[in-house]
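Researcher: Here's the sequence for the chain we discussed earlier.
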Amino acid sequence: MSKVKHPHLVQTDVPARLDRLPWSRWHWLVVIGLGVTWILDGLQVTLQGALGPILRSKSALSLTETEIGLGATFYLIGAVVGALVFGYLTDRLGRKKLFYITLIVYLTAAALTASSWNFPSYACFLCLAGAGIGGEYAAINSAIDELIPARLRGTVDLIINSTYWAGAMLGAGATVILLDPKIVPDWLGWRLSFAIPAVLGLGVLYIRHWIPESPRWLMTHGRNEEAEEVISGVEKMIEDESGTPLPAVTEPPLTIMVRPATPWKEIWHTLIIKHKTRSLLGLALMGAQAFFYNAIFFTYALVLAKFYQVPANQVSWYILPFAMGNLLGPVLLGRLFDVVGRKTMISATFALSGILLAISAFLFQHDMLTAQTQSIAWVIIFFVASSAASSSYLTVSELFPLEMRALAIALFYALGTLIGGVAAPAFFGHLVETGSRDNLSYGYYLGATLMILASVAEIFFGVAAEQKSLESISPPLVSQIHSEILPAED
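Model: Thanks. This is the structure I predict for it:
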């Protein structure tokens, strides 16, 4: 990396050097150290869902179905606030610093949730846990996309996001034991369940020590020597591992202006004027998948208990195959997002998810399903929907410039969750409480419609981002290629 004579400009080949790296142990470290966020989120949400029937009992918190749904809503409200606050700070202070802070916030809140004594305390601690996870989304997704080679970004992103369901399986498996009154008393089992994420997350703090700051972020903040040190260290590590020199960089260098922060005026202009169709697309995808998932998964246990009389301590056995289907979807389909293409796969998975949910809703409405066949239907639906949901995060992180990437992820996650997710758990909790199959089915039809509309948005506004560098999809706001020179700041 060499400095340009202009005091505000630097010339860098960091993005090209990162994208041409072969897959290595270092990339596995990034995937494990950062991707664990999704495991913790899946664990947290699964515990909330599986514990729903238990939390209604007098030996726990004596919550109603509506209060259980509201608890999930508070978790999502916290996630929205955390995403916006920590997302902004991630672009200002760096990816590495924030993925430490957000994880600590979440682990503290998870431990506090285990000590809840009534609904207000339960809702408050869930809100704080959500803030930590929401902040993680922005810091982690931006860091992962900036460190993974372009040719594999879609595959890796979807697989990492699918690990949410590894956490769900872990939570379901744990509650099979912890919610069995023959093994653990009712009053203690649910508290131990909520304490699990706090214990598991402690080791993650150590792993993240070995993950560097994003060189892409460093280069835009004038920390050129640090960026060079990081990329050179990674290159040497990979060369030592493979025993062969890395291929030469063939892409032209990128010229960027260094500045401490991007003005808000420029951010809003990019979102509302320059990339308004991308903004509409991100909002449609995020909102649809948020409603789809939060509506169904947060009330999964309640539906099984209310309409199929599944005992509370048996619900986890139904969640395990559901989580497995969600995990396998992106693992098996993820590569297609890089090979077949973003637009084709995103539009297809959103549309198919909506159609399958509508069919399932019709069968449920007419009492044509059992607990087992209802679960099989959900496994099939979410095998596809998991890839659709993961692709929405991938889309937002790819389509906006580096200087505002974390904030864009946070903003669209927040807007999508507010529009499509925050009210969904409480709304569906109320629908379950009515005991009406018709009422609940209408809610499912709404979720199906939103997914199909999001598919249409992808067809019209989607971008063919497969195997392209982030800078070619959306150049940094202050960048210029080759010999073009940017004017100095006032």
